[in-house]
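TASK: fixed-backbone design
INPUT:
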């Protein structure tokens, strides 16, 4: 444990609540104050990256709204969605703030209550994303994620709140940073890959599907797919990883008679449009072990 005594000019000694021990003596420290009047100390220290033992596991991840993440092995993870569960309280606090005179003491108290509420939502979301991304990195050697146009998707008035409550971009940032720290391979494929339209069994492109269609049947091989799970498998394949032992390229075609019988039922569930062309697959540079800087954030309490 590194012994550090913190003291601020015109404030005095600072009582520090440590989130974790520092692995080495810090080279610099920054005091951060957020909108909820909370203070943090950010330390910059040099560490040696911890390389985890190699594993043969690879995973493709499809992100969604109803289900936060669907893995290529069929596992599904739900998000806590803190804003959706507490939206009524936020409306009540915002309404109380709007009734106060700007610049008054009561306005400042109401503003701090709203700021603390948003800070709690952020902490809940960040804690979930940190734990999930760390678990994924420790269990898999290669992680493949799809590039999403989040800034464009939040312009949809009906989905913007739900998308913002999930933290897709933050999740990708955590995966990228933790993968670099532990020597894992993190890949991001192009957003134009038709992962939801392609059959993960035979590679047939069935066309664009409506959002309400969660299960569909391939017109070529007759395989029935869960939309999210099928997309996760295609993401893994597009990232340069093999799918399964009985994967694409095997003998999974049906006869013309059986395929014709499936056309009428499948056409009611999906609208067949010309599929988009494949885009380039983005693969980051290989990991090079060496020294790196890490920020440690600690919550502190002021003592006057």
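OUTPUT:
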């Amino acid at each position: 444990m590194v012994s550090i005594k913190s003291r601020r000019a015109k404030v005095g000694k600072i009582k520090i609540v440590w989130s974790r021990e520092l692995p080495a003596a810090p080279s610099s420290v920054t005091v951060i104050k957020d909108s909820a009047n909370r203070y943090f100390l950010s330390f910059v220290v040099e560490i040696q990256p911890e390389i985890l033992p190699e594993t043969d596991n690879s995973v493709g991840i499809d992100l969604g709204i109803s289900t936060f993440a669907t893995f290529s092995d069929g596992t599904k993870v739900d998000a806590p969605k803190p804003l959706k569960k507490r939206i009524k309280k936020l409306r009540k606090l915002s309404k109380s703030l709007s009734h106060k005179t700007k610049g008054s003491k009561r306005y400042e108290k109401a503003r701090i209550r709203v700021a603390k509420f948003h800070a709690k939502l952020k902490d809940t979301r960040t804690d979930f994303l940190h734990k999930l991304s760390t678990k994924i990195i420790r269990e898999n050697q290669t992680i493949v994620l799809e590039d999403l146009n989040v800034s464009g998707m939040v312009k949809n008035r009906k989905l913007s709140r739900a998308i913002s409550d999930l933290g897709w971009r933050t999740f990708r940032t955590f995966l990228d940073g933790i993968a670099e720290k532990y020597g894992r391979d993190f890949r991001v494929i192009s957003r134009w890959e038709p992962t939801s339209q392609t059959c993960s069994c035979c590679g047939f492109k069935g066309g664009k599907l409506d959002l309400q269609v969660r299960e569909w049947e391939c017109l070529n091989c007759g395989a029935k797919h869960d939309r999210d799970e099928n997309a996760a498998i295609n993401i893994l394949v597009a990232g340069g990883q093999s799918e399964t032992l009985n994967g694409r390229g095997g003998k999974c075609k049906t006869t013309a008679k059986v395929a014709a019988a499936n056309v009428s039922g499948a056409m009611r569930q999906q609208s067949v449009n010309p599929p988009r062309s494949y885009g380039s697959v983005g693969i980051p540079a290989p990991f090079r072990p060496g020294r790196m800087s890490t920020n440690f954030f600690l919550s502190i309490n002021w003592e006057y």
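COMMENT: The chain is about 35% helix and 20% strand.
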